Every structure is written in structure tokens, then in C-alpha cells.
Amino acid sequence: MPEPVPGPASPQRRSAGELESQVLAALWAAAGPLTPQEIQHALGDGLARTTVATILARLHDKGQVQRHKAGRGFAYTPTVEDAAGLTARRMHHELGRNQDRSTVLARFVSDLSSDDERLLRSLLGEA
Question: How far apart are CA 7 and CA 110, in angstroms?
Fold first, then answer.
């Protein structure tokens, strides 16, 4: 029997990290801490509150959000200021996981475009 083909009414599976990124974007757009229910409402795509709460727990475990007691639950704030800060934190984390930092950095730089290489050289010159 052939596998069913997702139709217009079938939910599409998100790519890895997409939902986490959407939750963080909602937190960055907020004026203050948000509860899972407020984030669920902000995303507005039919996610269950428990799904949002699970994503928030994972982000908390990764150190990407902090939580504060709010009534019987928690309200969340991001620990990084924007997507660029999150990417930088992830790059530092990955670099820290490897014993041979020199090789990792050399391979990273060797894959840069010439424009990115110039930008990196400029930024390093300013540092």
C-alpha cells in the first residue's frame, strides 16, 4: 500500500530548529516575558500549548531562555538579544566541543567567500 501524500489539509513537518526559532522570534518581539500560552497565541498556527512549553523547556536547557515564576507556571525571556547573537553563541558552542580548535577554525575560514573573508579580517583588525 503506498504511503499517503500530504495534502493541503495535512500539517507539514517543520525542519529541525524551525519551531525553536519561531518561539525565540516571538520572545524577541515582545516587550517583556511571555508565558507559553502567550507565545502560542503570538505564533497563531494551531500549536498546542504543551508543544510550546516543551520547546521552551528545551530552550531553557540550552541556556537560550530564562524563566521566571508567573502564577502557577513560568514566563520566559531570551538570553540572547537577537538571531545574530544566537548564531554567535551556537558557533562558540560548536567550537568549544572540539579539541582541535585550530583545524576547525582553519576549515571554517577556508570555506568563507572572499567578501566574508575581507569582513572577518576587518573585524579582527578592529578587535
Answer: 43
